[in-house]
Amino acid sequence: VKDYSFESLFSFDGYAEKLPDGKYRIVKKKTFIDDLTKLPNPDWSWMEFDIYNQNPNDPLVAGLPIMCTRGCPNNCTYCSSKLYWGQRFLYRPIEKVIEEILSSYNQYGIKNFSVVDDNPAFDKNWFLKFCQSYRKMPQDINISFNNFSIKTVDQDVIDGLKIIRQNKITIAIETGSQGMQKHINKRLDLKDAAAKVDLLKKNKIRMHVAWMIGFPNETMGQINETVNMAKKLRTYSIQVFPVFPFPGTKLYEEANHKAS
Ligand code: SF4
User: Fold this and answer.
1) Which of 19, 60, 148, 189 has its Cα between 20 and 30 A from that of 1?
2) Signal peptide position in this chain (predicted)?
3) Separation of 76 CA from ligand 1 center, angstroms?
4) Looking at residue 242, what is its pLDDT?
């Protein structure tokens, strides 16, 4: 080997490198896979499922990850999704997703699946068709969605969730401050978000809600707005993330600028 540089040894398209001084360097991706029909199913043959199946009754613990759609066209300042998928939304053919689930079920006896998509109902038509196709699934298969955008929730989507026997979803509201919603470019209308939480409750769908605290320049008043909204919504469960600026995001630039 004549050249030990990172680029020479690892010619990945898009990566983050930690430099000796502790800083990070981002080399942006230049190409993305456009045609998801060509992706093979993941090879799980090496996986020792018995070790992980400690609590097979909880699909959130024991769900095999599966990706049905890829990416999100939104542009929240803290989100790193666009760095690896591009700022766009693609979906797999529904029959390929169903085939992947059935293949893991038949080959390994997996019954719980955890959808890791960023914004699975962004294309409502795709999502509703997926729900209809899911009707043919064996009754002992469970699927759970981990990142559901509250913007996409309406009665049609909720009816779809019922078809796929979904009684709990995870949604991210992040901040209860309308001003901070704008600042982080999440741009949820908080009244609308609260109304959708009510709609989900009326339909007996439990929610796990993600919140974030510690944005640069966030005031105690804004943090209290988040705490108050989380209390007021009284969802099934919540998680509160301390803000972490991922290299390559706008939030990272903002945090760096504030630190310098
Ligand atoms: S809506 Fe979610 S996935 Fe989309 S950009 Fe915002 S944080 Fe990322």
Assistant:
1) 19
2) none
3) 6
4) 97
